[in-house]
Structures are given as C-alpha cells and as structure tokens.
Design goal:
Blueprint lengths: L5 E6 L3 H4 L1 H6 L4 H10 L4 E6 L9 H5 L3 E5 L9 H12 L3 E5 L6 H7 L6 E13 L13 E11 L9 E8 L4 E10 L2 E6 L12 H14 L26
Parallel strand pairs: 1-2, 1-3, 3-4, 4-9
Antiparallel strand pairs: 5-6, 5-7, 7-8, 8-9
Helix pairs in contact: 5-6
The structure holds zinc ion.
Zinc ion binds next to loops.
C-alpha cells in the first residue's frame, strides 16, 4: 500500500473562540471536524492555526504537507506576507491547496488568482443546491447528481476569479443566485481547488457529501510525479545550448 496522503488543515480558529453560536457547532474548531472527515478516509492529518508561531506553517510543516486545506474569514489580514509567500512557493512546486468558503478572500488565494476574488453574499439561512456539472471528474467520485445543503450563507456571481481550468460544481440558491462553487486551477506544478460550502454558523462540515468532496479534492490535489518542474524558487533557465543546430 502506498503512503497515506499528508494533509494539513489550516484554520484561522477565531470564530470558534469568540462566538457562542459557533462554539456550539464546532467546540474544538472546524479544523478538527474537517480533519476527522479525512482521517476516516485514510489520510494522514495534521492541523495548524493562525495564533501558533508562524501560523503553524513552518517550512518543515509545509515540506511534509502534500495538501493544505485553508479556512479563514475574520483575520485574513493578520496572516503574515512572509508565510503567504512560503505557501505560494510550495504550491508552485507541487503542494495541493484546497481553499474553503470565506477563504476566497484569503491572501494566499488572491495571490494565486491575481484578481479581487470578491463576490455577492447574503446571510439568510436559505438552501443551496450544488449541481455536479463534471460527473467524470475525480472530485465528483461517489456523489449524487446534486448536494442539497439545508441552510447556508449565499455566495452569488459574479465571482471575480480567473476562469477556472476545470469547473466541477455550480450552485443554485433559493434566493435566485448562482455560483461557481467547485473550481480547479493549476499553478506551476500545484493543483488548487476552491470549494464554497462552510459558513461557521451552520454545521456544514458534518454533512457526509461535503466531507466526501473535501476528501476527493485532497486526493485530486495531492502531488503526482508528473514531468520535471524546472522553475522551483522562481528561477529562469538560460538555454545556451539549443537541442538542434541553429545555423
Ligand atoms: Zn461565511
């Protein structure tokens, strides 16, 4: 059997400490609940949070991470730029990154996308129907035709991201909006998946299909040997000797 995929769940871990309503749903933090979903499915799981030294994302931790999961909301600005650059470099070198829900406005996601990553939103507890629009995609493995989440915060288009390289899910909301809720991107040698569900005041990370998607995404985003990646660390290659004679 091959080695388990090593996943690090990064959580800002502030709402769970400061908001009673959130504490009731996630007493130990969302990272623990998401981590259990992955442990149950055979992943090797570690966690890291904002208030740890270096936000828990030391070079050693990142070097031993195949896929990083990111949840942040109220403290995006407190994430040090130096750590964001460290994460970006690891993604370009092949580490997978799964950005959840309000992570759309995280420094790392905006840096990797290059756009505002803004969107429309409404907090009304309406339902969301997430349609699988790419049924053959590895992230859709084992899912029904759609996932219904009974109570969510709405995110609507326009979502200011670059056109995704692969689009797996599109959401419909009772209030009438639609949203690209499962988006794949390739950056350098790394794979990135943005997945919309997960507002902190609803128990969304306990829902079986949501847990399945995160596990599928971690499997998809894990590094594969692929072809050589020459530009690690951002260096350019001076090709002094062409493969064929030039004249
Ligand atoms: Zn939210």
């Amino acid at each position: 059997m091959s080695n388990p995929i090593r996943v690090t769940i990064w959580n800002e871990f502030r709402h769970e400490k400061s908001h009673e309503e959130v504490k009731k749903i996630y007493p130990d933090g969302m990272h623990v609940v998401i981590g259990n979903a992955l442990k149950e499915r055979g992943f090797d799981v570690g966690t890291a949070t904002l208030d740890e030294p270096e936000h828990g994302l030391t070079q050693a931790v990142l070097d031993a991470t195949d896929v990083l999961v990111w949840w942040g909301h109220m403290a995006h600005r407190e994430v040090q730029d130096e750590i964001v650059e460290r994460v970006q470099e690891r993604v370009l070198a092949g580490m997978g990154l799964i950005v959840l829900h309000s992570g759309h406005h995280s420094k790392i996601f905006k840096k990797l996308m290059g756009t505002s990553c803004s969107l429309r939103w409404r907090e009304a507890g309406e339902n969301e129907r997430i349609w699988v629009i790419q049924p053959g995609h590895p992230i859709a493995e084992g899912l029904p035709e759609y996932i219904d989440i009974p109570q969510v915060e709405m995110y609507g288009e326009h979502f200011d991201i670059p056109t995704p390289d692969e689009l797996v899910f599109v959401s419909w909301f009772k209030g009438g909006e639609v949203f690209r809720s499962g988006c794949c991107f390739f950056r350098g040698k790394g794979k990135i998946f943005y997945f919309r569900p997960g507002h902190e005041t609803h128990p969304i990370y306990y829902q079986a299909e949501v847990r399945q998607v995160i596990a599928n995404a971690a499997r998809w985003a894990a590094p594969t040997p692929g072809a050589p990646f020459a530009y690690a660390g951002g260096r350019a290659i001076n090709v002094k000797e062409p493969l064929e004679k030039l004249g």
